[in-house]
Target: LacI family DNA-binding transcriptional regulator
Amino acid sequence: MAEIRLPKARRGRPRQAEVARLAGVSQTTVSLVLSGNKQGIALHPDTRARVLQAARQLGYAPDPAAQRLAAARNDLLGVFSFTATFPTDVAHSYYPILVGVEQEAVARGYDLVLFTGSSSAPARAGRADALDRVRLADGCLFLGRHVPADELRRLVEQGYPAVHIGRRDELDSLAWVGADYAEATAEVVRRLAALGHRHVVLVCETDEALASTDRERGFRGALAQTGLTGEVVRAADPAAEITGEWVRSQLAAGVRAFVAEETDTCAAWRALLTAVEDAGLTAPADLSLALLGAPPADLAHLPEPTGFDVPKAELGAAAVRTLTALLTAGAADCSPLVPCEFRPGRTAGPAPHP
Amino acid sequence: MAEIRLPKARRGRPRQAEVARLAGVSQTTVSLVLSGNKQGIALHPDTRARVLQAARQLGYAPDPAAQRLAAARNDLLGVFSFTATFPTDVAHSYYPILVGVEQEAVARGYDLVLFTGSSSAPARAGRADALDRVRLADGCLFLGRHVPADELRRLVEQGYPAVHIGRRDELDSLAWVGADYAEATAEVVRRLAALGHRHVVLVCETDEALASTDRERGFRGALAQTGLTGEVVRAADPAAEITGEWVRSQLAAGVRAFVAEETDTCAAWRALLTAVEDAGLTAPADLSLALLGAPPADLAHLPEPTGFDVPKAELGAAAVRTLTALLTAGAADCSPLVPCEFRPGRTAGPAPHP
DNA sequence: TCCCCTGACTAATGCGCATTAGTCCGCGGC
DNA sequence: GCCGCGGACTAATGCGCATTAGTCAGGGGA
Model:
């Protein structure tokens, strides 16, 4: 039942003015010394030393809010992820991205601030709605499909430096970085072709997401390029449509390679695995399977799927690079597509001869 | 290779002054209308409506940095967790706390900002070191044992509202909330007493942490209270010291109940389980076991240990309550101890008659 | 000797907002 | 007919800092 009391006559934190008084100089000089004197004004080393000493003695630390207001910068980068709560859970799929973000940000001298869309907060009039908080930082990374488009648009239109992680097309003038799903998918098809496959089927959920259409595009492109034949199956309910029987019929039609798309649920991949098992077949002996992405954690005990990995840390780092380019140069023209790495895995093999 | 360019002639975000011009009022009036007019200055409804309309039309959103500077508040609460990069292993145990923090914060009209100790950033002179970033927020929660004590002390001494999650004694005048390990441990002992046990042994690692000494205190207190006899065994290397043979010797001495402390590794509990198995015994038939905390995830397949659960979400919520009390009243006297809940589990039972 | 220049600083200003002291107008009271 | 008063606002100020214009003393050069 201890009582903690804030000092009422707020001794408060020291400001530059106090440091200045102690060092016997002006507030301007303190600012000059402490903020690196970018305009190259001549300063005597002794003065500099006195100021630094005084600052240390008083435990001075700049107020980031004031810095942001005065200089329009405070070297903070925001990360906004629109999830229920902070994505600090290791199991969270955003986590590896954040690791890359942090490394790159630190390397470039920025600190990070995380925001989340705290969903339920009633938007009072005149109150910053969720997205506007990010203005505390010099620029912000946005993560996830559910970032409200209209608020984001306003932010961007008002000139706020923002970079979206994951391809985002609705808003031009919104910078983004994304994984190159099309090329990665094409590579998987080429590998299958190299293994002797002539017919490939891609199984997807019915999904309008760019990540999905990108894969389909890469798939079709690679078919054309390699001369394979193939087909895209979009199933509203993969578990119901992708059955053992379906697999058999495909085999009868000469298909020996199946590719599934990775999604949140991985429903297509799961359905495919189940169907193959139901059909009494095994990969890669009887047929080849590939997953366009990484398998979900709960399937970690199964043989590693052939497919590709999204370099999530690299994605985060690329986003930071783009954002800092925006901040320092006012523009960014680095390629927003990050290549994925092919994963040989153990579910695809040479096409069995008929 | 798209080129994203920030508007150079920065059309920028609208400020209150622009809204004021459009609405034909003064900036003061805009501020009054939009920030809720807490000083109760009379305003004509029409004026109010015009201002709101203008604000909406321009897409006005307040600058949180300016708000913080002018009003010394922006209704943001910080959460600082000190880990090298985004928490990897600890993250898991913090996560439920964050959930509680977020719920309570939202309920009280605060938004959250998350900071992490990005350790490695070279501390430039005059640059805010990691902890000082939290000043962007009105107050901050600190999470974890590794928050640097000296920086935290400075923050607190300068009157910054801070609450530590987890007991923290070195700094008086630092508010904290923590789980009531002592009482929870005492309850476990009482339950064992009620089951007919007369002798209880507590197995710990050698640990100076408060969480550990609190448990020991609760244990000894409950022994005295119930009239049981007991002993505390602190093992530097539990796996080596807590053996099947050791268990047998304890049994020979009349002990039928063993209690282990929960730690990061849960070494004591693991050692105990192994030792009991080595001795060819089973709980709760031959003896009773209790764990002072929650079992680690990798032991989830075993029978649920008797013991107690730390209400992590509640802990987070309590921390937010304490912090907001600090913010609004300038002081907090709510009890910082959050009670734990007894978990019957399936490893403790009636003491076998000799 | 006078002037200009350079080095080492400081005064003043403004960022966008909240707040504190007014200001001004209309109306009821005496 | 003048005063006072409350309603509806606005002017001015300052938060803590960065930045832009100075200021001032001393040292050549002509």
User: Anything to note?
Assistant: Chain B has twelve helices and 14 strands. Confidence is low (pLDDT under 50) at residues 87-91, 119-128 of chain B. Residues 15-17, 27-28, 30-32, 35, 38-39, 62-63, 65-72 of chain B lie near DNA strand C (CB under 10 Å from a C1').
